[in-house]
Amino acid sequence: QSTWGKFVADYFCVGGMGPLSIGLIVLFVFLFLLPGTRATMQKVLTGMLFQGFVLALMVGVAYVWYQYNFSQEQQHLSLQILQSTTKRFLLSTGCFLFLEGTFYRWLPVDLIPDFIPIVGSLDNMLAGMVMGVGVTLFTLGYYLGTGDVPPEFVRLFDVAEFAANTSKPIVEKFWPMVGPLANSTITAIKELTEEAVKLL
Question: Are 91 and 136 in contact (CB under 8 A)?
Answer without folding.
Answer: no
